[in-house]
Design brief:
The protein contains 25 helices and 3 strands. It has about 525 residues and is mostly helical. Helix 6 packs across helix 8, helix 19 packs antiparallel against helix 20 and helix 22 packs antiparallel against helix 23. It is globular. It starts with 8 loop residues before the first helix and ends with a strand.
C-alpha cells in the first residue's frame, strides 16, 4: 500500500519558481539530510519510496520538504512533521482508480476469462509505470498513478479467483497464499531498490524507482499469455470439452467426473442469473456479501498500514537515525516474508479460523505495547529523544506485529473471499472485495498522518479496538472453509448456526451426497472429514 496523489499544476509551478532562489541552500541542507527511505505495497513493489526522496519532494512537494527540514532542525512535534494532505493524497491516489477498475474487471473476467483480465491489468500497469518514470509534470504523474490503479484493480480481481479455481481443495489455501508471498517479497525488494536508487547522484533516482514498476507488470502481462484458463471459466463460456481436459490436467487424474458435474451444475445455475450485481443482494447470498465487505475492511483496520504502509515515515517519526530506519524496514520486510511461509505451511492444516484468531490476538497485544511505549516516551507533546535500547524494543514488538499479520489477516484477507462465492456471483463478489479493500486502503492512507498528528499515540489503541472487534467477528461468524471444494461452499454456510437461516434447502444444488452436521460448518464428504 502506498503513495502518490493530487497537486494542482498552478501550485506546483508557483512553488518551483519561488523555491528556485533557495535551491542552493536546499542542496547544502540535503547533504546533511538522508535521501533514503522506503515504502511498501502489493503489486506495485517498485513504484514506491519516492515520497521520501529529497529530489522528488523538492520537485513536486517543496513545502513538505521545508516542513520536514524545519522539524529536524528545531526538534519540533514529531507526530506532525509529515502531516500534509497533499502528501497523503499523493501517496494514496492509486486506490481511487483501483476499486472503480475492479467493477469493469468483473465483466472482463466473466466474459473473456481470468487470464485476459490479468493480461489487461499487466499491460495497463506497464503503461502507468512508463508515465511515472518519465513524469515531467504533475499531470503525467497523476495519469500514471491512475493507470497503475487500473492495473491493480484488474489483477486483484482476477488473480485470487484464478488461484482458487485452479487449486485442488486440499491445497487451495497454500497455493492462494503464494499471491501474498509474492507481495511480501515485493515489499522487501522495494525497500532495497528504493534505498539504492536514493543513492544515485544527480537527483533522478526516483525516476528509476518508479519506472522499475514495469518489471512485475511485464511479468504478469507476458506470463498471462502462457496461462491456461480455469475449468470453471471454460465451462461458463461454453467450452465444456476443453474444461474437462483442463480439469484432468490440473488434478493429475482421469477421475474428475464428480467435480466436473459440480462445476457444470454451478455453471447452469449461474446462467440463470442475468444480473449478478442485483442477485448478490438476495438473502441466500447474505453470508458472502457480508464477508466480501467485512473481511477486506477488517484487513485494513488491523493497523498494518500504520506500520508497513508508512513504515519509513513511522520510523523517522520515532526518531531513528536514517541507517536504522533503513534496517528497520528491511528487518520487517524479512519478517513479513518468513511469516508468510508459516501461513503457507499451516493454512490447510490448522485452517483459516485458527490463524485469524491467533493472529488477531497477537497483533492486539503488540499494538497495545507499541502504543504504550510511544506514549510513554513522546507523551502528547510529540517531542523526545529515543535511546537505542528503547528503539530496539519498539522494533521487536513491531516485528511481532508484522509476523502476526503476515500469517493471518494479510494472506487470509485475500484467500477467504476468493473461495466463498458461488460461480453465479463470483466476479461481482470479488469486485466488491477488491473495491472495499482499496477504498479502505485509500481512507486509511488519507487519514493516518492527520490522525497521528492529532491523536498521537492513542492512534495505536484505536486500531487495537478494531482488532478486538474483528477477532470476535471471526469467532462468531466465519465458518471453517479448509478442504471444502469451492463449488460446495454453500453447504458450509447452510450448516452454520447463524448464516444457515438465510439459505433455503432449494438453494442448494450441489453436493447432494454431502452429509452436513454441526453448527460451525463442519461436514463430511464420503469418508473425508473437513472442518
Amino acid at each position: 500500500m502506498h503513495h502518490l496523489a493530487f497537486l494542482q499544476l498552478n501550485k506546483k509551478e508557483y512553488y518551483l519558481r519561488s523555491f528556485l532562489q533557495k535551491i542552493r541552500i536546499v542542496v547544502l541542507q540535503a547533504k546533511s539530510v538522508p535521501k533514503k527511505k522506503k515504502n511498501t505495497d502489493v503489486l506495485q513493489w517498485c513504484s514506491g519510496g519516492v515520497t521520501s526522496m529529497n529530489p522528488f519532494l523538492m520537485k513536486f512537494f517543496p513545502s513538505v520538504y521545508r516542513k520536514e527540514q524545519e522539524a529536524e532542525r528545531n526538534q519540533s512535534n514529531q507526530y506532525c512533521k509529515f502531516d500534509s494532505q497533499l502528501l497523503t493524497m499523493f501517496t494514496s491516489s492509486l486506490y481511487v482508480a483501483a476499486p472503480v477498475a475492479s467493477f469493469f474487471a468483473a465483466t472482463v473476467t466473466r466474459v473473456a476469462g481470468r487470464k485476459w483480465s490479468m493480461f489487461g491489468g499487466g499491460v495497463t500497469f506497464l503503461i502507468g509505470a512508463a508515465f511515472n518514470g518519465a513524469a515531467k509534470n504533475v499531470v503525467m504523474l497523476i495519469l500514471g498513478r491512475v493507470l497503475l490503479g487500473i492495473g491493480v484493480g484488474f489483477a486483484n480481481q482476477s488473480v485470487p479467483v484464478y488461484l482458487s479455481e485452479m487449486a485442488p481443495a486440499r491445497l487451495r489455501g497454500m497455493l492462494n497464499i503464494g499471491f501474498q508471498l509474492m507481495i511480501t517479497i515485493g515489499i522487501l525488494c522495494a525497500n532495497l531498490i528504493n534505498y539504492g536508487t536514493a543513492k544515485i547522484k544527480g537527483g533522478w533516482g526516483w525516476r528509476v524507482s518508479l519506472a522499475l514498476a514495469a518489471v512485475p507488470a511485464a511479468i504478469i502481462a507476458v506470463g498471462a499469455l502462457f496461462l491456461p484458463d480455469t475449468p470453471n471459466s471454460l465451462i461458463d463460456r461454453g467450452h465444456t470439452g476443453a474444461a474437462k481436459r483442463m480439469l484432468k490436467r490440473v488434478r493429475g487424474t482421469e477421475d474428475v467426473e464428480e467435480e466436473y458435474n459440480d462445476l457444470v451444475a454451478a455453471s447452469d445455475e449461474s446462467k440463470l442469473v442475468a444480473h449478478p450485481w442485483c442477485n448478490i443482494l438476495q438473502p441466500r447470498y447474505r453470508p458472502q456479501l457480508v464477508m466480501a465487505i467485512a473481511i477486506p475492511m477488517f484487513q485494513q483496520l488491523t493497523g498494518i498500514n500504520v506500520i508497513m504502509f508508512y513504515a519509513p515515515v513511522l520510523f523517522k517519526t520515532l526518531g531513528f537515525a536514517d541507517d536504522a530506519s533503513l534496517m528497520s524496514a528491511v528487518i520487517t520486510g524479512l519478517v513479513n516474508v518468513f511469516a508468510t511461509f508459516v501461513s503457507i505451511v499451516t493454512v490447510d492444516r490448522l485452517g483459516r479460523r485458527k490463524l485469524l484468531l491467533q493472529g488477531g490476538t497477537q497483533m492486539l497485544a503488540c499494538q497495545l505495547v507499541v502504543g504504550s511505549l510511544i506514549g510513554a516516551k513522546f507523551g502528547f507533546s510529540g517531542v523526545a529523544e529515543i535511546p537505542k535500547a528503547y528503539a530496539a524494543i519498539v522494533v521487536l514488538f513491531i516485528c511481532a506485529y508484522v509476523a502476526g499479520f503476515a500469517w493471518s489477516w494479510g494472506p487470509l484477507g485475500w484467500l477467504v473471499p476468493s473461495e466463498i462465492f458461488p460461480l453465479e456471483i463470483r466476479s461481482a463478489g470479488q469486485s466488491i472485495n477488491v473495491s472495499v479493500n482499496m477504498l479502505c486502503t485509500f481512507i486509511i492512507a488519507q487519514a493516518f498522518l492527520p490522525m497521528l498528528c492529532r491523536f498521537k499515540f492513542i492512534l495505536f489503541f484505536f486500531f487495537g479496538a478494531w482488532l478486538v472487534v474483528m477477532t470476535i467477528f471471526v469467532a462468531l461468524f466465519l465458518p471453517e472453509t479448509k478442504n471444502v471444494p469451492i463449488e460446495e461452499m454453500v453447504l458450509v454456510w447452510k450448516s452454520h448456526w447463524y448464516w444457515g437461516r438465510f439459505i433455503r434447502d432449494e438453494d442448494v444444488h450441489v453436493g447432494a451426497d454431502l452429509e452436513m452436521h454441526g453448527a460451525n460448518g463442519n461436514g463430511k464428504l464420503g469418508g473425508m472429514q473437513y472442518q
